[in-house]
Amino acid sequence: MSPQEKRAVSGLSFIYVARMLGLFMLMPVLALDNDQLRYSTPLLLGLAVGVYGLAQAALQFPFGAASDRFGRKKVLVFGIILFILGSLLGAVTHNIYGIILARLLQGAGAVSSVLLATAGDLTGDQHRTKAMAAIGGSIAVAYVLGIAIGPVFYGLWGLTGVFLVAAALGVLALYPLWKIIPPIAHAQQNRMGSWADAMKMFRHPPVLTASVGIFILQMVLGASFVVLSPELVNAMHIPESGIWEVYLPVMLLSVLLMLFPVIYAEKNKQHGQMLIVSGLAIAVGALIMGLESGNFWPVGIGAVIFFAGYNIASAILPSMMSRSTLPEQRGASSGVYSMMQFLGIFVGGVLGGWGLGLAGDQGVFYILTAVGIILAIQSWNGKRMALLLAPDSHS
To answer: Which of 63, 98, 230, 249 is buried most, with the most CB atoms less than 10 Å from its CB?
Structure first.
């Protein structure tokens, strides 16, 4: 990568880490404060946990399309400020309705689509997949760190302290916009003319192809979280508070395993083939965890293979989608893509819960095996992959 591309990727990765770390820290501790929150019920607590994802799904497209008209950095600043305000509200409220509103405001800062579009603006086609892989890896790091340090801050300062740390991380996320991320070239400032033009991205074949792929991929991830953490705790014979000690090596090894397929896809234009590998890896990893449930090494190896498959696809799909659209379409197209991404997580959580009640832990892993095979089959369609690899197919 050029020095400018490295600055762009490092700055965007920092924003991803800061925002997602603030969110992931809250995930393991929100339920711990349930007794101290006035008017709380199990249903309202579940709404407090899940409303963030629904807000993200609803607003990804409007934020992405707005960035095509008004500029990426302006919309990024606005979204990050909403996240900061939500975090500050969570710090000062002491009832469940305030927490729900705080989480809604945090989710309303739906800038993932804008970050993807900015990465597309500031990196060349030949480095796009590597850029997306770096950003995807930073999210995995944020997840592991959030699970690890969220309970630490909760023990020191309670839920108020965790929300304040999230707000501080939001403030830090503003820094790269001024000091690290390069300005977008004037030639890329020809923004989409109308919202009607933006809505056309919902019918744009390359965007639809990538969005279906990411929906399936995130559905796999959402369903896996229903059973994966308890399974790892059971297989590794560790307390729940030590789950990060398992996730950290699993995530790091899975990132290492994904590097060769991603680099190979980029050098040899074999993106479709590597997506097939990704789906098969997800299926094999899930199948191993289902068949060997409770056994230390097989479950650990299965988790590494599973996340390696996930990481491969999460790097390749946004790169392919980005190169198939014009600069003035990237925000809207990334909005469609990110909307499907968050909907996939939501549907996956529901699917995982349904599978858990119907067939138990092992049954969910078998469902994930089937979904991984579906992802591989969807990627087998050469015509669909050709759409994603032909930048001028829309012109």
So the answer is: 63
Chain centroid, CA 382 distance in Å: 26
Runs of H (alpha helix) within the chain: 3-24, 42-70, 72-92, 96-108, 112-122, 128-179, 195-199, 205-236, 243-268, 271-291, 296-323, 330-380, 382-388
* Displacement of CA 245 from its chain's centroid (Å): 21
pTM above 0.85, yes or no: no
Instruction: Work out the burial of residue 358: count CB atoms within 10 Å of its CB; fewer than 13 is exposed, 13-18 middle, 19 or more buried.
Output: exposed
Helix (H, G, I), strand (E, B) or coil at 117: helix
Could you give the CA distance from residue 38 to residue 163 in angstroms, rounded to a whole number? Answer: 17
- Kindly report, residue by residue over 218-248, the tens digit of the pLDDT: 888 777 766 777 777 777 777 765 666 777 7
The pLDDT score that the predictor gives to residue 186 is 59
Residue range 27-31: mean pLDDT, rounded: 70
Backbone phi, psi, residue 294, to 5°: 90, -10
CA 48 vs. chain centroid, Å, equals: 19
Rounded to whole angstroms, the Cα distance separating 20 from 155 reads 20
